[in-house]
Give the backbone structure.
Amino acid sequence: MSAVRPSGPVKHIVIVGGGYVGMYTALRLQRRLRGELRRGEVVVTVIDPQSYMTYQPFLPEAAAGNLEPRHVVAPLRRVLRRCQVLSGHVTRIDIAHRKVEFCPAGSDPAGGVQDIGYDHLVVAAGSVSRTLPIPGLAECGIGFKTVEEAIYLRNHVLRQLDSASSLTAVKDGSAQGAAGAAADEKARRRALTFVFVGAGYAGVEALGELEDMARDACKWYGNVDPSEMRWMMVEATDRILPEVGPEMGRWTAEALRRRGIEIKLETLLKSAEDRHIVLSDGEEFDAGTLVWTAGVKPHPVVGDSDLPVDAKGRIKATAELTVEGLEHVYAAGDNAAVPDLSGTGEYCAPNAQHAVRQAKRLGDNIVADLRGKPRKPYVHAYVGSVAGLGLHKGVANVYGLKVRGFPAWVMHRTYHLSRMPTVNRKMRITADWTLALFFRREIVSLGELARPRHEFELAAGRRTA
């Protein structure tokens, strides 16, 4: 199939990925090239499987019920009014022939692939969870990178409380055999055990928010005491939250331990078969919930293409956010190894702060190339780090100022609200927070969202497990 490309002298900019880098780069181009886009001299195409950008720092609050999940995503078509948005997967990037292979959403990859040609290409496919070949992990674990995973975890945790509350045979002394009572008690302990692997931002914030939500929800379960729940963080290194520094990391660990959360450092998950957790320190137990947040790796499409990559599978990028050795091909964000000119590290860390800033510089450099002007390198000034640990709890290291507790929580919310795209989303999030001052959190589990046809299948006489 021949490549599809705008006819005539039109410049076609293709952006692979609609996350932080993809959306903000397109937004920058939309603003800087307003005249060219209106006259049809430039076409900007954004390709992503989803029709929205997820603001990941707000996922823990969405999972805890503090924010409506739809409010933590930005619709690409609404934000990028002057760009063409295609929903589907890029299956391969062909640099040699200046095209990408695109499979529209809902199409069969075997026969529905289209070729899209480009003049300028931005590779911003982002990352996926970095998993390990641990027995049972793929079957029992779940990540924490998408709004779908956040919604599922919220429903799942509440469902676990529902299950534990319903297993009351041991509590109320119902007549049954000792074997049945022991089985119920074992199932109850498993339901109330929650394990998170990986102590970076995603893991710590997700654990902090969900534990806080579950503890609050226990008020409505007369036979589930918060002390019965077991929350555990497993980390392979010797500290948590390395982004905020050793001192604040230690304070965070101590604060979580005071809440009854177990922190296991220098410990590995060895197995999770049938939800039976085996750790490298020899401890074994059952857990109804296993969340995997132990790092990320570049999107698989990067490795399946003819792009230059380093030992970690990241695209080799220059400080100007171009791909090494390639003309008019750019990369930034989690899937790129961007040199850190600030001196704080060899390469920029894969986080939202860098992605948003890189996107602005990347957009400006593309405009410079189109207009024959010199590009500028990406240089950033380190602002700091903030993390939420639950309602009214947080930790922050901003411009060297170390803050914890309620002030850090306010700083966390304020910073991320300022970075949320569109006034529409900012106002909706603010409204959610304002309503939360006057009303308790919802504790309804909508677990059947994952199986919407179950009730209909039952009515039709088709019994499903």
Notes: The mean pLDDT is 88. The chain has 15 helices and 23 strands. The two ends are 44 Å apart (CA to CA).
